[in-house]
Amino acid sequence: MNPSVRFAVSVLVGVTVGIVSARYMTTEQSPFFTHQYGNWNNWPVAGNPANNPYTQAKFIANGQLPEHFSEVLTFYRNKDDKGDTLTEDCTYVMSVERPTARRWSISLTGNAGGRPQVLTQNDVISMGEKVTILLSASPQPGNWLRIFNADDPRVVFRLYDGDTITAQGTGSGALGLPTLTRVSCS
Amino acid sequence: MTSTRTFWALFTVLTAIAAHLCYILFVPPQQFQTKLDTILTENGINKLTLAEPGTAAASIAQYPGELTYAVCLFDLSTGPLRINARVPDQYWALEVYNTRGGTIYTLNDKQAPRKQFSLYLYDDDPDPEAIVNAANSVGSSINSITVLTGTETGIVVIRSAAANRLEAARSAEALQNTSCSLASS
User: Any idea which fold A34-41+68-185 has?
Assistant: First the structure.
């Protein structure tokens, strides 16, 4: 092969691989720089001044300024407990022991219109310590988050007062992360 | 023949590494700077602005359904910045970031010294004692906090709970009584 053609092909392949790998490593699906708690993901050094450039890139590329992890711990997921991607064609039930955090919220992002659906500790109805929330396209009794024309639905679980929560332990059991089970599909 | 192949394989790998690092280190900061420039054009510098829907500052508001956001882009080249803050009786947090998105300082409602206090941002100074003296001369040290940013430019973000009408009303009242301006003004 002609050296100049080899040069062009090498540069093209190298630049493509470099950029694609960089973009992948700043996605929520990336196993690098994220902590996995079952199907929940967390960027453990978000907002840390000494954070790595990948965590920094993940947030600022979208114009976002993450809260320091001492303020809020944020967990993301786009899969149910079996590992299937969330879809508006299905109904899901999310269960969690009422978190001990000073403030917490569960939101659903990715709906048409962009504005997330949010339930905070003041919004949820529960008879005991267990909180159950239904995620579905159609109205549901009790706590309901609507999946509406969702392109890439994902659930966000936020625990405020991150310092206190972290001091109690950061295993998925200690954090008390919600389960998310598929109930039925249309 | 083998050495030629090895050379081009190595060249491709090194090109990939260079492109990867260049992308990570330069593209997101440039994208973020563009967002900051848009906010600057719309809101100006050293001025607190609510990140309401439809404004450039709204792009900072990551969780608009549960928090109210206010932002202040600052430039300390002409002097220190003063934030007169009012803290509501609910979750509230103030964070100072550099222009690359790194946190410089954070304070929440439980850590704030008073319901109303002043926070002064200073760029690095060769004489830290002078900075402390200057801050103390402005007012009571109990009601004021001094932060050395280590950078001339950055952004202050105030987040306040707003998941329901009561929280939103408390946040609005607190933010109406919060200001961000040069300490000399």
Answer: Jelly Rolls (2.60.120)
CB contact under 8 A, A71 and B8: no
Boundaries of domain holding B106: 44-182
The angle formed by the CA atoms of residues B128, B133 and B138, to the nearest 5 degrees, is: 130
What is the number of structural domains in chain B?
1
Cβ-Cβ pairs closer than 8 A, A with B, add up to 140
Chain B partners within 8 Å of A70 (Cβ) = 106
Residues B72-110 have pLDDT tens digits of: 999 999 889 999 999 999 999 999 999 988 899 999 998
Q: How far is CA A172 from CA A38, A78, A94, in A?
A: 8, 17, 15
Q: Say whether the ipTM exceeds 0.90.
A: no
Closest in B16, B106, B164 to A14, CB measured = B16
Chain A residues in contact with B25 by the CB 8 A cut-off are 53
**B163 reaches A (C-beta below 8 A):** yes
pLDDT in tens, A36-62: 888 898 887 777 766 788 888 888 888
